[in-house]
Amino acid sequence: MGKTLVDNNLRRTVLGSPVHFLAFGFGSGLSPKAPGTMGTLAAIPLYLLLAHLSLLEYLLVLAVMSVVGIWLCGESSRRLGVHDHGGIVWDEFAGFLLTMTAAPQGWVWIALGFALFRLFDIWKPWPVRIADRQIHGGLGIMLDDLLAGVYAWLLLQLAAHFAGA
User: For the whole model, what pTM was predicted?
Assistant: First the structure.
């Protein structure tokens, strides 16, 4: 079976199922190149919609996204028969939103948050790597990105502090 046919089948599967559509970040995870990066980019408009919320409201949305994400990513993965399929990017949405918690406003901070999150999501320092390799199912899919988001959040907050933002 050719790659195009597989891609078309996956596209139909993702676009035809609300579970896959959400897990694939509204389709952004279908990108043939760097789906995690594309998923993180697709999370920026969601962040912009949520940035006006109070910190408590923002954290509540993030908590709900994370809990739902455990089921959503696990179910999408189960249905596809592939653990942590590269196109499942709901975890990137949650990790990026965690990174941007209480971030200063402005595109510079969004770009820095994006870069830091992608750095830690790709690099996977301890304990991110352990979560990625040893915890399975939806929790494992979500946890490594949330931990990467914590690292990115810490550095973003440090940068904001030293920048006086």
Answer: 0.94
